[in-house]
Specification:
This protein is of the alpha+beta class and about 180 residues long. It has six helices and nine strands; from the N terminus they run ββααααβββαβαβββ.
Amino acid sequence: MLQIETPRLRLVPCTVAAAQAAMSDRAALEALLGTRVPGDWPAEDLRDFLPVYAQIVDEQAARQGWGIWLVLGVSEGSLVGDIGFKGPPDDFQTVEIGYSVLPAFRGRGYATEAARAIIDWGFAQPGVWRIVANCLADNAASIRVLEKAGMRQTGRDREGLTWEALPDDIGRGPGRKHAQKQ
């Protein structure tokens, strides 16, 4: 099974079965993931999207990593958040990322660690030349995550800030290594 491992996290694609279990059977989801799933996951945005995700995502695409990834804290023994791509690379070889960390696990660097890992993984895939993200202009925590993950701000509008990373923008400094398993 596809997964990404970092020093403290294990990222696994959210399959259709996991999305369906997340909507109706937390115990089944915990059994699928082999870890605890806190009661406040998923956050509202993802909770509203999961029924659609379970209907529109192709199981093959989910298993290939172009959807939601679940972020599992190894030492926590718990799901700590989610991250992922908003689809496969488009005609411009661009993918967009989004992420969320549960309140109990914020401030520990998990979002940055997961973002770095998913960005590295994305650039290792064929057909990806640019990775973008968006955040609200007043979301200081998300701004720090995107900066630390090696992205740079490219724009600002009423909706917030836009960010991008190109392969040359992302260095492989300390803590940038991760293992990918198939």
